[in-house]
Amino acid sequence: MKIACIPALDEERSIARVVIGCQKHVDKVVVCDDGSSDMTADIAERLGADVIRHDRNMGKGEAMRSLFKRAKKLDADVMVTIDGDGQHDPDEIPNLLKPLESGEVDIVIGSRFLTGGSGVPEHRAVMNRILSIMTIEGISDTQSGFRAYGKRAIEKLLPGEMGMGVDSEILIDAVKAGLVVAEVPASVSYGIGKTSKLNPAHHTADVVFSLVKLMSIRHPLVFFGVPGFALVSFGLYYLFRAETLFSAQQVITPLTLTYGLLAFSITLFGLLALFTGIILFTIATLVRKNQ
What we know:
The chain is α/β, with parallel strands linked by helices. The protein folds into 2 domains: about 1-220, Spore Coat Polysaccharide Biosynthesis Protein SpsA, Chain A; about 220-290. Helices cover about 50% and strands about 10% of the residues. The protein has helices spanning about 15-25, 40-45, 60-75, 95, 120-135, 150-155, 165-175, 200-220, 220-250, 255-290; strands spanning about 1-10, 30-35, 50-55, 80, 105-110, 145-150, 180-185. The protein has a 7-stranded mixed β-sheet, with helices on both faces. Helix 2 links the parallel strand 2 (about 30-35) and strand 3. Helix 5 runs parallel beside helix 8, helix 8 crosses helix 9 and helix 9 (about 220-250) runs antiparallel to helix 10 (about 255-290).
């Protein structure tokens, strides 16, 4: 079964076009209405879509989580995700599905930048390039919501991020799970619906904070341990300087006191970071063993 999954928030102007366009290429369309205040859910339902309703706005990540759960429940073979704002052309869905046919690719991304990013505002293009570099090497458009997931990807992935960082989280999890990711060119058209509920700077900050959070959770020894070790080293350096000054002058000068305070505070923060990394690493290890 091929299904199209559409996360949507206040998209009554564009949702009909997206749903009808997807119905030509898949067996079932599922819309997750993430607490819309307009007719988004009603329009999608009238058009025959399977609608998941969130009582309140919970974020794109939670909408994607609901859609992945529904895809698993339906035992879908292929899941296409497409934004409800109409920026992507549903008639390009066959282009996404073709690489999956070989069975060697698990996720296909419709990239807006493989053909030069035509139609993408420059500020958006720059921010997307930065986020792509931070997320996964070799992928030009990690923030594209126009994707196709094969059976293995549907079974192995389930987003946990609630915000806009979900697109990056999915790709990071995919690489960790050994899934193969590919890209195909995709067009984009802005101005049909509300192409973003956040301004570009806010969107970028949301994704960056999500990436930082993921790093701290999944690699705590690196995220906390390395800075912690560096801070302890600096603290010991200032302790050595304070001891050297005191030994030479046999009196506590303002400079000696300053070095001593720096040594104490920096070493304390370093030890806290080290122990935080060790504790989180231990918890993560226990969780993995019990899964």
